[in-house]
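Q: Can someone sanity-check these two? First one:
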Amino acid sequence: MSKGEATRERILDRAFLMAGRDGLDGLTIGALADELKLSKSGLFSHFGSKEELQVAVIDLAESRFTELVMLPAFKAPRGLPRFERIFEQWIDWVMDTRTPGGCIFAQAIAELDDRQGRPRDVLVQTQETLVDALAKSAQLAVDEGHFKKDTDARQVAFELHGIMMTLNMYTRLLKDRRAVDRARQAFKRLVQFHTP
């Protein structure tokens, strides 16, 4: 890795944490340069604009989510075991104490949902990819006979996504100590409803 690549990686690591804490709008070239003790012009040369920095952070978040949630889940057997593993890995993602603000996607969705621009477009793509993967995992559970034949896999994906967004809110905003237990109960009911 070149010195420039190492610097870019260090910038993105810090930007990821700042965006989780302060939101994508709170992520400015100036604030990031101050945190890293870099010149604004030096930092600007790696990204060119605040918008490009936001896009890079969303891309990094997707990469980390894939690495920490989806790839470990894909090692589980097809069907319900894999679907359950996605859920458990996702809990770990939301509850990770090293990432202030919880799930960066929950934060970004609230910030960017009604805006136009490249960061929103990239976020939409990441969430569509996630929903497709969740629906595919639910469909595999149908194919393996773990879920009823008439199960709507996209509805299951919608409900799992809803559980996880609610977990983030109950954990971060409401400080509910039973948030993970509540999420597990909701997931159990979701699975039971679709089990033959």
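And here is the second, same format, sequence then tokens:
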Amino acid sequence: MLSQRFVESLVGIFLLFAIAALTILAFKVSGLTTLFPPKTYTITAAFDDIGGLKVRAPVKIGGVQVGEVTNIDLDPLTFKAVVSMKIHDHYKDIPDDSTVGILTAGLLGDNYIEITPMYNKTYLKEGSQIEYTQSAMVLEKLIGQFIYKLGNDNPDKNKENGEQHAHQ
């Protein structure tokens, strides 16, 4: 039979592993996946409308995550949303004439930033601002425009309105 001391040692080791596993799980769930974050550089872009974009949203090129949104602020002069992004250092050859757009993951998913590289031989660096931006498509606005168009394009309604004005 196993000694009492050996059994207690095994239980202690098991508890240490369980605590370590829960700590790693907590870091993964909170988004703090690395203790030593990779080297990055910061770029910015100004948008008319960012929709539901949030800090820590992914920044992607061709579907591959190359960075994340670090800050969203409002420019007091232009009233545009200025989005700061940290890009991983090993993606340092992104042309400075690239375009940036806010897209939605799926029909109702979270927003993310997609960078579309262009053709310049000069590249983005720390503090660069991307000039060519495409704002988010907000589903509520699109539905509102669609309903408004439906209401104004109804020929029967326009005919009735015309007849009412003719009788007055």
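A (reply): Looked at the second one. The beta strands are 40-47, 58-61, 64-74, 81-88, 99-104, 111-116, 129-130, 132-134. The mean pLDDT is 86.
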